[in-house]
Amino acid sequence: MGLAKRIIPCLDVDAGRVVKGVNFVDIRDAGDPVEIARRYNEAGADEITFLDITATHEGRDTTLHTVEKMASQVFIPLTVGGGVREIQDIRNLLNAGADKTAINSAAVHNPDFVREAAERFGSQCIVVAIDAKQVGNDKEPKWEIFTHGGRKPTGIDAVEWAKKMDSYGAGEILLTSMDRDGTKNGFDLALTRAISDAVSVPVIASGGVGNLQHLADGVLKGGADAVLAASIFHFGEYTVGEAKAFMQQAGIEMRI
Amino acid sequence: MQKIVVLDYGMGNLHSVASALKKVAPTDEVVLATTPEEAHGADRLIVPGVGAIRDCMEGFIRPGFVPLLNQCIEAGLPILGICVGMQIMMKRSEENNGVDCLGLFPQPVKFFGTDLQENGQRLKVPHMGWNQVQQKIDHPLWRDIENGSRFYFVHSYYVPAENNNAVAGETDYGVKFAAAVTRNNIFATQFHPEKSADAGMQLLKNFVGWNGAA
């Protein structure tokens, strides 16, 4: 008995539409994030993460409106990330109904932004998203932070960075392995373990989930507090319920 | 139709509390009040709260919500505190180097600490996610909620369950803490019912129908 590990479906949204598509059976509109989030809510997801990949200002307003609609129908925590650069961005998202906001590139450019945001809104709603790639060999792996969707190397060590973000007031770390993202080969467990052991706050593992064993491994071997996945749920390979049952069978505390 | 007032003292996202109330009480009026005047005529009151305790206390005192809350307590209005909204009802919090709170309950608010453990395993702080709540008393707000149901928590400070006769629900996270406290017409939860899916919605529904008697 105790705190359950979390399963978090992730939606990539561009100007108010889910871009990777979701093929739930009998869904009315596979691109409507509100409808999809509602389905995941009903299916027992523990949280929803909404990644806004919109680049334009008009698109941003659409996004806020989408968050508003989603928050009025989904009664589990909602994290929104992507393009969060200023205090005003966070305020807008929280006012629209987001429970947490994820900060990525802006934290790398200006770490004090995280401190300021945590002081202003509380650590509980500040998630620092880290995109990391392995550098060096497999025997003594090290990971480096990348920004701009994994295109720009920064020279920053991922473990040191995670510790710093923890001390700056991040309430949670959303950790994505750029090497694994989209591969379906499973999480980078060494990376997940290294970060999870280094910080005092919860870590969400992301990037690479291809089957249910991968989710369980993220917790059991990687030490993650939550696991995030997109395509295995979107394309109906597994339901959230199946994932939870599997993880519980593996000895992991879940909310069933 | 009743008037449900959510006190808005500038702390965090009240959208989700308001929309959850609209869902469970579609015919009632839900008002976000930034002044005591806007709370006038309330049939029941919600004290939410997100963020750090010092700002919360200041934000609560500034608009004159302390006398308002006291009047509502005396008048027997059903009152629901949520998260930091529960913590400000306690005597004093360790957060922000120590802050005096409203003292409606004699208990302190303590920090989980940086070396919280359970069975030799380090526990992450904040306590974030879905944990089980053991109902310690029979109460109208627990109606139709299975004992041991999971609710969504996110907090680094807690109200101890030990020597606490106000505990209505208890949760274990390295220490046993008060997941809910109650006294007469006040019920307050450390978890977020508005984010706790079915169990949370049931609790809000129970609150909306509660007459304030235990």
UniProtKB/TrEMBL annotation, chain A:
It is an enzyme of class 4 (lyase). The active site is at 12, 131. InterPro entries: Aldolase_TIM, His_biosynth, HisF, IGPS_HisA/HisF, RibuloseP-bd_barrel. Coiled coil: none annotated. It is found in: Cytoplasm. It comes from the Bacteria. Its EC number is 4.3.2.10. GO terms for molecular function: lyase activity. Pathway: Amino-acid biosynthesis; L-histidine biosynthesis; L-histidine from 5-phospho-alpha-D-ribose 1-diphosphate: step 5/9. Belongs to the HisA/HisF family. NCBIfam families: hisF (TIGR00735). Heterodimer of HisH and HisF. IGPS catalyzes the conversion of PRFAR and glutamine to IGP, AICAR and glutamate. The HisF subunit catalyzes the cyclization activity that produces IGP and AICAR from PRFAR using the ammonia provided by the HisH subunit. This is Imidazole glycerol phosphate synthase subunit HisF.
TrEMBL record, chain B:
IGPS catalyzes the conversion of PRFAR and glutamine to IGP, AICAR and glutamate. The HisH subunit catalyzes the hydrolysis of glutamine to glutamate and ammonia as part of the synthesis of IGP and AICAR. The resulting ammonia molecule is channeled to the active site of HisF. The keyword Cell inner membrane does not apply. Its EC number is 4.3.2.10, 3.5.1.2. The active site is at residues 83, 192, 194. Keywords: Amino-acid biosynthesis, Cytoplasm, Glutamine amidotransferase, Histidine biosynthesis, Hydrolase, Lyase. Residues 5-208 form the Glutamine amidotransferase domain. It comes from the Bacteria. Its main location: cytoplasm. It catalyses: L-glutamine + H2O = L-glutamate + NH4(+); 5-[(5-phospho-1-deoxy-D-ribulos-1-ylimino)methylamino]-1-(5-phospho-beta-D-ribosyl)imidazole-4-carboxamide + L-glutamine = D-erythro-1-(imidazol-4-yl)glycerol 3-phosphate + 5-amino-1-(5-phospho-beta-D-ribosyl)imidazole-4-carboxamide + L-glutamate + H(+). The gene is hisH. Heterodimer of HisH and HisF. Gene3D superfamilies: 3.40.50.880. It is found in: Cytoplasm. This is Imidazole glycerol phosphate synthase subunit HisH. Pathway: Amino-acid biosynthesis; L-histidine biosynthesis; L-histidine from 5-phospho-alpha-D-ribose 1-diphosphate: step 5/9. It holds the Pfam family GATase.
